[in-house]
Amino acid sequence: MQSIWTLPRVATALTGSSHLISAPRNCSVNGFRTISSICHKWSNYHLRSPHQNPSFHKNLLSSEISFKSTAQSQSRQGSTEGPNVILEYLDGTHEGVAVIGFNRPKAKNAVSKKMLAEMNEALDTLKFDNNLRVLIVRSHVPGVFCAGADLKERAKMAPSEVGSFVAGIRSIIQGFYNFPAPTIVALDGAALGGGLELSLSCDLRIASDTAKLGLTETKLAIIPGGGGTQNLPRIIGPALAKELIFTGRAIDGVEASRVGLANHSVPQNDAGDAAYQRCLELAAEIVTQGPVALRMAKAAINKGMGVDLASGLAYEEAYYAQVIPTKDRIEGLTAFREKRAPKYTGE
User: Fold this and answer.
1) Active-site annotation holder among 11, 31, 122, 217
2) Is there a catalytic annotation at residue 186?
3) Percent of the chain beyond pLDDT 70?
4) Residue 271 bears catalytic tag
5) Is 197 marked active-site?
6) Coil, strand or helix: which one is 114?
7) What pTM did the predictor assign?
8) Could you say which of 67, 88, 220, 235 is the most buried, measured as most Cβ atoms within 10 Å of its Cβ?
9) Can you give the pLDDT at residue 22?
């Protein structure tokens, strides 16, 4: 079974901390605001995941019917906007995979102050999880990944606020780039402006053939301000990056794969989540590898890309040294000798 974790700080009232609370998978977003009233019965529990506290998780799931009913009631009454970001931990063959999902349908996932804060909270929670092997970033809104910054909200900002807001977006994009575990982004819809910049900061990009990708800022008489002028040329080369930025042109997933902007392009399915499904397949391949090795390999590549070859090789040597004393390295050698699948623990 899969468990969705939301980001509102409801646990603060229960435990005095901001640990996240697990919620039933099939509840609507509006229902998440009722989780605190459901959880008061078990406020003596301190939950990080259903695996760490199965008793709490079992009790919480027993409230699923009333939880879902309340969510549907709130939805019919036109309640205020729920969480913009949903954090999900997967299990089974995807144990060790977390999914950050954008869920702001009325604004096509345009990044507002609220959404930015929730994204920061999700990353801050995940980056200290040593059991995490892969992070997937996706959209829960059909036909769109992220429309970039919320320009309607920005138009109401004072000039002094704009700079700090853009800096916040740049910081979250850098946060994805520096995230310790491998990251994969599912592009099942439009990723324009800051939405594409965010995807450029992830390690791997999977695009559906119907996705529309572009840095369109010059159409608004501005330039990409979230790393686009630096990351796009490093991925597809400076000449093509200049063409796409100068023209503000958006390309589809097939073209994105052809030019190297996307690792893979897949035909869109009826559910509209073909790219996400391909991400799950790719994540299932990655999670079987040594988690410490994955993090060190990513760090070596990222650090080495910004320096000369000799310095890059020095980084590689330094990060290789980090895996030598690990239990996982011994387990890998032992499993190879015994002709069995290794059981890595991240130690």
Assistant:
1) 217
2) no
3) 77
4) no
5) yes
6) helix
7) 0.76
8) 67
9) 38
